[in-house]
Structures are given as structure tokens and as C-alpha cells.
Specification:
The complex is a heterodimer. By secondary structure, chain A is an alpha/beta fold. Chain A has two helices and eight strands. In chain A, strand 1 and strand 2 form a beta hairpin. Chain A is globular and about 35 Å long. Chains A and B meet through helix 1 and strand 7 of A and loops of B.
Chain lengths: 116, 316
């Protein structure tokens, strides 16, 4: 049913077919560098996976995918609304601890905020 | 393209045990249930139509993602309209539609309204189950249940009977756990066990949910953690057809008397497992998009014959 295409050949093919769009994407990728207390969502991944911050820090999550994601603490201490493309969510960590979180839509996406 | 994985599995297996599935780039899957086992019967309007008149036919549509407007398809409502136009043009009117979730992209009222309006043009009853995109309103699923949950239990699961087939709609997108997959939960599994109790093993079963019930690709979350428990409850039945969406591409598997089928989206394609950095929307050249979108038709034949499934794309 499906033909498996060599990924590099596919990439070349896509590059050929989507030259203008790929160019636009590259320009898009050249946005402002990631802020120190920021977690970005790209390709269904929280980055960085582990972020260490001092107590009192406000951490901001930004979704760069064109699919919505959420940020939900495993202990339910924080929970974002659905974040559409380029939407963000912020939460202030007042005390020390290790806070694991995940995406409620794609729970294979996980991350940890370590508050010192 | 016409030769499918299911064709390869047919060798040495009786027709009754096998799901044959012909795939076209475009609109959907035509399922024929003959004696409870699905098999494909050919192009809609050709062989399908001839065979379907003696059975009963329903459609599977999925992943409409109304509200999606990104590069992979700036007009998801437009491609749904194209799919519905194909439904309206079918020579054999299907009995109903099963929608396997992600009706909307962001659970917004206007998205649900637009979907209802376009599906309403078919004049067919739609049996829905939610996808994870349908329960991301502020009240986490209230918008879906207010619209589609009448008579359903819990997060929206239910069953019904039609033409001697027992249909079960399951919800596996609620209360997902960190690091996990889709989830049915103890309450729904207990309901399923009770729902099946007392039913004859010869009753053909069609079970549908958004995320595949078996683990198709764990790395991308394409499976259900406790899906096997549901499948274990269904094992004693002579014919079980499992319909899902979520992965925006065709996938079929036959295991004993169980046939698994995931339908195309009408909105945008997703990459084959592991073939891209993420399962996000797959950008294809605009003139190829419609060959990656579609719907499925299932025909249930009376008597001891298999179900037939036809996938048809919007390009066809």
C-alpha cells in the first residue's frame, strides 16, 4: 500500500518541489533566539527536555508546531489551555522541586522543570 | 497502488478471515460486511455498486480538522466539502456515516458548526467519536458531549445495532497519562464487558475509535495503552472489524478474525511511521494533496460473506 521512499531522496524531491515554501520556512526559522527561561515546542518535542531555573522564575512555553499542544503538570499543579501555532503559556514556579509535565494531546511528549 | 498489504496476507488464508482493501488516492474507504468480515469490493460506482445493492453499506470518514488552515491544507473545510460531494454522488446510498474523530481542529463552536453544516448535506446519520482535537475546549469535552453525546456514556462511548451488526464507538482520547498512549480507562472497559455479555459469538462486531486500538507506532503515540484489554473482550467473536483514524493514512492489519483499518483524513496527510522528525502535517505539492485525502466505504453483506472495504481518495 505504501511505498517506502528513501528519506534523502524524498528530501531532495520535496526541496525541488517546494523551493519557495522551503525558503519561507528557513526565513521563519530565523526568528529570535530562544529566551533562557523558555521551552519551545518543535516537532512534537519540548526543548530543552529538562530546564533548571531558580525559584520564582516564570517559565514560558511556545508552540512552533502547526498542531496544537498542551502543557500539563503530572501532579496537576499547572495546566495550559490548548496552544495553537505560536501561542504561549507561562507559569511561575515559586518553590523548589522537580516538576514533570506532558502534552495532554500527545502524551509521548514529556519534559521536566527543575526548580532550585 | 492497487496492491495492498492486505493482498499479501490473503495467500493461504480463507476469504472469510481476510480483509481485502483496495486503495485509491482520494476520497474514502468502501467497506462491505459479508457474514461479518470486511473486504473491499472495488471502485465505488463499479463493482462496489453492483455488490453493495444486496448488502448494506456505511461510510467511514475521519480527521476533518475543520479550522485547520496551515500550509499542509489551507482549506480543510473545502476538502471536506469535496468529500461530501463524492458521498452525495454515490450510486448506492450508504446507510450512515461513522466519523472516527478530530471533527474540528481546536474544538471551537464555529468549527463544530461548519462541520455539522457540511455533514448535514449528506442527509445521512453520523455516528461520532471524539478525537483529541474535539475535547480541547475550556471545559475539556463539554462542547463535544453537548452536541454529540446524547445517549452516550462517560466521555461519549456507546453501541448500537444495525442490520445484525453490533457497532461500538469507543473514546480513547480522554485522561491521557504522561509518557503514555491512548486510553480507554477502567470505567469504559467495564461498560464494554457488560455491553458484550450475552451476545452470540456469531454477531459481527464493528468497533471504532479515534486512535488505533493496537500499538501501531509507539514513538509517535499511535496506539492505546489498554486497547489490548478491549480486543481481548472481543476475541470470542467470529468477526471483528476495528476502524480508526488519527494517523491520516491508510493502514490495515488482519489478525485471526480481527481486521484493523485506519482511514484517510479529509484535511491533511501525515507521514509514514518514523519517516519524518514528527507526526505533524505532511506538506505535499498542492496537486498531490487530494490523492492523500479520502474516505472509506464499508459494505455489510447478508449471509456468510466477508465485509468489503473500499478506500477512495479525493483525487478519484
Amino acid at each position: 500500500m505504501r511505498k517506502f521512499v528513501n528519506p534523502s531522496r524524498r528530501a531532495v524531491l520535496i526541496a525541488l518541489l517546494l523551493g519557495p515554501i522551503a525558503g519561507a520556512c528557513l526565513a521563519y526559522g530565523a526568528r529570535a533566539a530562544q529566551a533562557p527561561n523558555e521551552v519551545v515546542i518543535d516537532n512534537f518535542t519540548f526543548g530543552p527536555h529538562d530546564l533548571t531555573v531558580p525559584a520564582g522564575t516564570t517559565v514560558k512555553w511556545v508552540n512552533h508546531d502547526d498542531i496544537p499542544h498542551t502543557v500539563i503538570a503530572s501532579d496537576k499543579s499547572f495546566r495550559s489551555k490548548a496552544l495553537d501555532t505560536d501561542d504561549s503559556y507561562s507559569f511561575t514556579f515559586t518553590g523548589p522541586g522537580t516538576f514533570s509535565y506532558f502534552c495532554g494531546l500527545h502524551p509521548q511528549m514529556t519534559g521536566t522543570i527543575i526548580v532550585k | 497502488m492497487a496492491k495492498t498489504a492486505a493482498d499479501d496476507q490473503i495467500k493461504g488464508v480463507g476469504r472469510r478471515d481476510v480483509l481485502e482493501c483496495m486503495v485509491w488516492a482520494g476520497t474514502g474507504v468502501l467497506w462491505t460486511v459479508s457474514g461479518g468480515v470486511p473486504h473491499s469490493i472495488g471502485l465505488i460506482g463499479e463493482a462496489a455498486a453492483a455488490e453493495a445493492v444486496s448488502g448494506f453499506t456505511f461510510l467511514q470518514m475521519s480527521d476533518s480538522h475543520i479550522g485547520f488552515d496551515k500550509a499542509a491544507n489551507p482549506d480543510a473545510l473545502g476538502t471536506l466539502r469535496e468529500a461530501v460531494a463524492k458521498v452525495k454522488a454515490m450510486p448506492v446510498k450508504p446507510s450512515f456515516i461513522i466519523h472516527t474523530g478530530d471533527i474540528t481542529h481546536l474544538s471551537r463552536p464555529a468549527e463544530f458548526d461548519n462541520a455539522d453544516k457540511v455533514f448535514g448535506e449528506t442527509g445521512l446519520q453520523v455516528h461520532w467519536v471524539p478525537g483529541e482535537h474535539d475535547i480541547i475546549d475550556e471545559d475539556r469535552g463539554k462542547a463535544y458531549l453537548d452536541r454529540y453525546g446524547k445517549g452516550a456514556k462517560g466521555a461519549g462511548w456507546y453501541s448500537y445495532d444495525d442490520h445484525g451488526v453490533h457497532f461500538i464507538g469507543l473514546v480513547n482520547v480522554v485522561d491521557l497519562k504522561a509518557g503514555g498512549l491512548g486510553n480507554l480507562g477502567a470505567e469504559q472497559l467495564a461498560w464494554l464487558e457488560a455491553d458484550l455479555k450475552g451476545r452470540s459469538n456469531s454477531t459481527p462486531i464493528v468497533v471504532f475509535s479515534h486512535i488505533p486500538l493496537y500499538v501501531l507506532y509507539r514513538e509517535w503515540g499511535w496506539g492505546t495503552d489498554d486497547g489490548q484489554r478491549a480486543l481481548d473482550l472481543l476475541k470470542r467473536f467470529g468477526s471483528v472489524t476495528v476502524l480508526n483514524g488519527h494517523i491520516h493514512q491508510l493502514a490495515q492489519k488482519v489478525e485471526g478474525k480481527m481486521t484493523f483499518h485506519t482511514a484517510l483524513s479529509t484535511a491533511f496527510p501525515q507521514p509514514a511511521p518514523g519517516s519524518a522528525p514528527s507526526p505533524g502535517p505532511m506538506l505535499v505539492p498542492a496537486d498531490q494533496l487530494r490523492s492523500k485525502l479520502g474516505l472509506s466505504t464499508v459494505t455489510v453483506m447478508q449471509g456468510n460473506k466477508p465485509l468489503a472495504i473500499i478506500d477512495k481518495t479525493l483525487a478519484g
